[in-house]
Specification:
two-stranded antiparallel sheet, about 45% helix, 16 strands, extended, 9 helices
């Protein structure tokens, strides 16, 4: 039994591992990069990054993994199993971490906060992408024209200009589009659908960005600010028009 928190263990080795949590001790060090761990098995998993060892192999497609849990997650692809269900909307997922991210839609939880502007995000990856707005970092570069982007998805969309790929096709007129959003907007024109509704006044729009602009009437949001006189505007085009006053 741990003499600090009274948690009981069946093996002495398990107690020893647990006590490292209280002591902060990280006795297992990687001899390549000097990173330290509380538990020996975590060190072993880490060292596979350096050795390239992938001891766990899928018996369906022969893809290999460094951790058994990664193999188990992968095997859900073949089995079609989606064992993780949202208790609110019953949507199912192959992986528990995807369920956790989804549930934040219902709870409104945004655990990742930018330390510059305090904007919060439900996913760590979205925070990392956002922070590049502040740092100016653009790590994803097109190998054709060398244009740089802050995230991989923007690079993939851009590369379609060079490849001519148009993966999104209208099932009515068969017109093809580079972006999913362009297809959605096009389909609204064909159907006359106005899928985006203001939850305050119930006014509807064909395009999501038009709804966002409209909602600023209710919220008072003016995200576009003049860097000369600090006057703010709800739409970027209004800011551009205003700035001509200063530039002549």
């Amino acid at each position: 039994m741990c003499d600090l928190c009274n948690k009981a263990f069946s093996h002495q080795s398990s107690l020893t591992k647990h006590q490292h949590i209280h002591s902060g001790e990280r006795p297992y060090m990687c001899d390549v990069c000097k990173k330290t761990y509380r538990q020996r098995d975590n060190l072993i998993i880490h060292q596979r990054m350096h050795t390239g060892e992938l001891p766990y192999t899928c018996d369906v497609c022969n893809k290999s993994f460094s951790q058994q849990r990664s193999l188990k997650k992968h095997q859900h692809i073949h089995s079609g199993e989606r064992p993780y269900m949202c208790d609110v909307c019953k949507k199912t997922y192959r992986r528990r971490d995807n369920l956790i991210i989804h549930q934040r839609m219902h709870t409104g939880e945004r655990p990742y906060t930018c330390n510059v502007c305090n904007k919060s995000f439900s996913q760590r990856s979205n925070l990392i992408t956002h922070q590049r707005l502040h740092t100016g970092e653009r790590p994803c570069t097109c190998d054709v024209c060398y244009k740089a982007f802050s995230n991989k998805s923007s690079l993939i969309k851009h590369q379609r200009i060079h490849t001519g790929e148009r993966p999104y096709t209208c099932d009515v007129c068969y017109k093809a589009f580079i972006h999913q959003g362009s297809l959605t907007r096009h389909q609204c024109i064909n159907t006359g659908a106005r899928a985006y509704m203001c939850d305050v006044c119930k006014k509807t729009y064909r395009q999501r960005n038009n709804l966002i602009i409209h909602q600023r009437i209710h919220t008072g949001g003016c995200p576009y600010t003049c860097n000369v006189c600090n006057k703010s505007f709800s739409q970027r085009r209004n800011l551009i028009t205003h700035q001509r006053i200063h530039t002549g």
